[in-house]
Amino acid sequence: MNYPQEQIKPYRSEGKKTKQIEQMFDHIAPTYDKLNHTLSWNIDRCWRKRAIRCLAPSHPRSILDVATGTGDFAIQACRILQPKELIGVDISEKMMRVARTKVRAAGFERCISFRKEDVAALSLPSNRFDAVIVAFGVRNFENLDAGLQEMHRVLRENGRMIILELGTPQWFPMKQLYKLYSESVIPLLGRLFSKDGKAYRYLPDSVKAFPQGEKMIGIMHKAGFKDATWKRLTGGLCALYIATK
Fold it and tell me: Which residue, 108, 121, 179, 209, could crosslink 5 as a Cys pair with Cβ 3.0–4.6 Å?
């Protein structure tokens, strides 16, 4: 099945979305962390921490971080959960180059490793991980069903999946403030600091088109997950999805 966000591409030209996403993140990698934390007012750090703590009761020893980017989620997961291993996968080698530098600085080289992978066709074996996590990357999948099915495949039985994804607030005044901020401020700052205005125009467009809430729960169930739940965070600016294999 095709979903609206799968048709939205950063550069709105011919070609696969996956390739354009790789190109976009390779381009903005040097400024990504600073701009990302600035645009979210650092609330994204709190969202990640809350998501990771949902995994604490199950004590995962092996974790897959999908769309790992510059490694913030991976590093926080290792600090809080102390797994034996965490593998971060991404299609952008330049983002992972930044991530490797951060992992070395944090002293987590023995725990965290990175590899270039397309989530729709992971080269990892089935039933490999106790947990799969992904922060703000699912809306970038070219094929949402295939990506979720692969995440399900590599999870062990009763393993947990955690997804953080940006959302659109539904209530006054957050809805109106978010619309102004996402359509005017984010593209402007993105263009000024990253020199790629299209990347930060793509951000609100992809969030708006992404299937949120109960729609996303239905898609997760279709991919084979059970006991799927979700919570709004910060008035709906972010959504936390949790499911089990």
Answer: 209
Cα 214 from Cα 157, distance rounded (Å): 24
Which of 63, 83, 80 has its CA nearest to residue 155?
63
Q: DSSP assignment of 124-156, as one string? A: SPTT-EEEEEEES-GGG-SSHHHHHHHHHHHEE
pLDDT of residue 216: 98
3-state secondary structure 213-229: CHHHHHHHHHCCCEEEE
- pLDDT (0 to 100) of residue 64: 98
Q: What is the band of 179 on the pLDDT scale with cuts at 50, 70, 90?
A: confident
CB atoms < 10 A from the CB of 113, how many? 15
Q: Residue 1, CB half-sphere, CA atoms under 13 Å: how many?
A: 11
For residues 209-213, give the mean pLDDT.
Answer: 95
Structure-block tokens of residue 5: 């966000």
**pLDDT > 70 in the chain, percent:** 100
Q: Give whole-number Cα distances, 6 to 20, 21, 139, 157, in Å.
A: 12, 11, 8, 29
Q: Which among 115, 133, 141, 134 is positioned nearest to 60, based on CA atoms? A: 133
Chain position carrying tokens 């919570």: 231
Q: How many C-beta atoms lie closer than 10 Å to residue 108's C-beta?
A: 18
